[in-house]
Design brief:
The complex is a heterodimer of chains A (about 350) and B (about 300). Chain A has one domain. Chain A is built from 15 helices and no strands. Chain A has helices at about 1-25, 30-55, 65-80, 85, 95, 100-125, 130-150, 170-185, 190-200, 200-205, 210-240, 250-260, 265-285, 305-320, 330-340. Chain A starts with a helix and ends with a helix. Chain B has one domain (about 5-220). Chain B contains eleven helices and four strands; from the N terminus they run H-H-H-H-E-E-E-H-H-H-H-E-H-H-H. A two-stranded antiparallel sheet of chain B has the order 1-4. In chain B, strands 2-3 form a two-stranded antiparallel sheet. In chain B, a hairpin with a 2-residue loop joins strand 2 and strand 3. The longest helix of chain B is centred in the first third of the chain and has 29 residues, at about 5-30. Classes of the chains: A mainly alpha (about 350), B mainly alpha (about 300).
Amino acid sequence: MSAARDKALQLLAPALLIVVIGLLGTTVSESTQTEFTGVLVNIAIVIALYVFIGNSGVISFGQIAFVAIGAFSAGVMTISSEIKPTLLPELFPFIADHSISSFESLLLAAGLGALVAFVAGIALMRLNGLAAGIATFAVLEIVHNILRFWEKIGPGAKSLALIPETTGLWEATLGALFCAVIAFLYQHSRSGRLLRASREDAPAARSIGVNIHLHRLVAFSLSGALAGLAGGLLVHQIGSITTEQVYLQLTFITLAMLVVGGMGSLWGAVVGGALVSFLNVYLLKLEAGNAVGPLHIDLPNGSTLLIIGAVMAAIVILRPSGLTGSREVSPRRWLASRRG
Amino acid sequence: MNWVQTLVDAIGLGSVYALVAIGLALIFGVMRLVNFAHGELITAAGYTLVVAHALPVPFAIALSVVVAVALAWLMERVAFRRLRDAQPATTLVATFAVAFALEAIWLIAFGARGESADLLSSLNKPAIQSGDVTIRWVTIAMLGVGGILLGATTLLLNRTKIGLQMRAAAADFRAARLLGVRADRVISVAFVISGVMAAAVAVLLTAQQPLVTPTFGLEITILALVGIVVGGMDRLTTATMGGFAIGFLNSLFGNVLPDDLRVYLPSAVFLVVIIVLLVRPVGIFAPRGSSAAERL
């Protein structure tokens, strides 16, 4: 009974945090609301990372490649086909002559993310450890390089603009919630459990017949789908995008969010994503010379990066397994620890 | 295009990457830490050259070595020392975080557009010219400095007591400690050497192209890191060869690819990286029979 309740809480706690952020977002001014939306999109990206990295224990530097694929496919396909040929004259005709709705574009983004992740994963999921990390990083580099220079499929090095801004607060809340539910369902599925077993002890898991390659591939593709979806949400939130926005900096900061929260749990992913994103938003505001509540400090340019770096370093040094200790919410354990 | 010229340039750039690789591989060897913040040591040395450009060249270079070494030592002392028993993902993020923070400091102090460290640009003049092959002084400097530092590191590791201790720590950290190797000292020395390497890289890079930006050292560090994993990061020699190989490949492909495909240089290099990793995950230069089981 209480085990079932614990399991329910594993989804409820992160879901509740996402909904609370969404609800709080309705109480603030319109410009602040955009920032809340951005935080929720970040949470969706961090959950996508978690689905692969958290469950498999393999660090991937490549998941932002799928965010990029999602963002650019959703962006390019939702620009009206009346202006697209003049905006991007080099496009393949089948891309230039069609346009789809924002909702359809999210499905497309998730589908392409999953497809590319699956194809790359067939080869790469045989690798372990740092070799896997570097190989996934190579995927990021290749995707970034192609998106940046191949003008038949996108804007190339220019900024892609005039994308419908359809990701509002509710869309972002629903998107992040959807990612959390999928992550929860996956980690309790057979494949998810076997993958987590292989994370703890790969030789033991293999010895009882777990096909680690297969389950990593499943998690990698699912993570690719969620990353693509999050990319679609992102592009419809900001309305324009360049390849540099979905590259190294985003890779490092989202990975840091995951580890700061605790990479072994969904709760950790959501907490880390929320905390670091909010910190980032408010520091940037101070940097731009705006007051945040009672605070009225004028920070020099670049200090956001400095403070975030210092806070991240402090958290991982003081709490190496993340703020949540990489555990899900469990009142039983909390009570037990209080009783000593 | 001239093949001799292409090869000479590729070997020169490869030597610089090899120096970055030594710095990274030494730290990885003694404490299993992938130091993303190594690039910030290079950047720090680069900005020192900017600030010290009025000094006589040898003093400016000496100062940049001092700054890089001090920063390397400080990084280990303040941040990484507490993380010796932590998970690889955690230490990796700690090094990101340190890199972030330092990059922000460069941004605040020097701005995003970059500053010129114009001390050694005279090295860009041709030293040897025969037919259509031009060998510039900077290429000779890259080869010379690369060779000397590589030799010095080899001597240090193989002929001194601290070198022996470092090799012991790299082979089995716990056993080395039990036998009386002082962990703190070995690790500090590794960071000091990586600081020296970083300063050398900064001097060579600014000689070739004097602009120092906040991300001056980042790109070469990331590529060298890719190189040492591809080469085989469990051994200093294979890691260094891997670093050399990726610098060499990058320069070679840049000259060999046809003009309209040259923008796809990173794709070509990283495709080779993926293929090599799939064929030999332990590293292309690693001896037969080595296993990847111990890797993080």
